[in-house]
Every structure is written in structure tokens, then in C-alpha cells.
Amino acid sequence: MVPRPRIDLIATGLACLIPPVELWLGSFVPQLFAHRLGRVLITDVIFFAGFCGAIWLYRSVLRTDWREFKKHWFVNFIKAVGGVIASYAILLVVRSLLKPWLSSSGVPDVLSMQTATVTLIASLTVLMAPFTEEIIFRHALFYQWRNRGVLTWLMFVLSAILFGLVHWNNFDGNIVAMIPYMAVGAWYALIYYWSRNIWQNILTHFLFDFIQFLSALLLFILAFFGI
After folding, report:
1. How far is C-alpha 3 from the geometric centre of its chain's CA atoms?
2. What stretches pass through the bilayer (predicted)?
3. Which pLDDT tens digit goes with each residue over 73-104?
């Protein structure tokens, strides 16, 4: 039986403050910056601060798990690719079930942003999110509560719900549109539960989000060459 992970309540409390603080600060950005590029740049800075804070709080977990993860990096990479495919399948299925309650505006589309340059800069947040979100939602809010009976699975549900809700700004507060991401959050929690290594989650999540970044990069290239 895998021993109970140690719970650092101070680190947990600080980590759990990162998403609401990011959302709170982000709510002021439109009021402070009239230009879209300025809003995007300051949003990137806010996300970068949260990214650094999450890594610093759980640097020992990241360091320890990395030593094991890199020993079988190729196998773990293949598992991550499979995890990404499953993630998109989950999104597709859940969205199809919720289709009667979803409007086309409820699902974000990175290609719909005003300019390719702003789109590319804005998409930098998706390269940081896998680290920040896996540390907070999968480790602080779920995995470190492992082997604690009912509490473990209550945290499983809570972490999945909160993971969906953290995308509040992406969906303009449309909770129904966040439900597919709650399902993906539950899937990522299971990946961590089975793999017992946070880097498996980070890599899976990174590859999932990297597709969005590639879309923004492709749009930028097409715009740059006037295609």
C-alpha cells in the first residue's frame, strides 16, 4: 500500500490562494488597460507570478518525482500522448451530452481573437497552466489527501469541480460550459492516482494545452506571411 503523502497545510493554503487571486487581479485588467495588447501582457505577468509561486511551494515534490519520471521518459511520454487523446475524447463526449445547454459562444476558440500577435502572446498562459494547475488542483487539492478514506474521494470531486470553475473567465461565467473541464479534471486526478508522479500529469496537461499554442503559432505565421 502506498503510504499517505505528508500534508503541508501552509503550502496548501498558499497554493489554493493562487487561482482566486489570479481571477481577482484579472478582473481589474480590462479597467486598467484599454488596449488589448496591454491587457494580454499584464495577464501573462499575473499568470507567470502564479506559476512561479506554485513551483516554489512544491519544489521538493517536483524534484523528487522528476528523478523517477526521467528514468522511463519515453514510456511516460507515450502514456501522456494516450492521456491527451483520452482527454479530448472526454471533452467531446461530455460536450455532446451538454449540447442542448451549450451555446457556440460558451466554448472558447483561440482562433477567434482579433489579431495573430495578441493571440500568440495570450496563448503563453497555456504553457504555464499545466504546471500551476497540476500542482494546485491535482497535488495540493487531491493527491496529498490520498489513502484517507472518504476524504480522499471528496477531495477528488472537489478538485475536479474547482478545476472546471477556474476556467470561469474563459467561458464568461457559463458554468455548463465548464462541466467538460470538470470531467477532464477528474481524469487528470485519476492519472495522478495511478501514476503516483506529478510529472505524468504535467506532461499530459502540457501536451493537451500545447495544441492550443500551436494553433496560435500557426495563425501568427499565416498572418506574418499574409497567407
Report:
1. 27
2. 7-25, 37-57, 77-98, 110-129, 150-169, 175-194, 206-225
3. 999 999 999 999 999 999 999 999 998 888 65
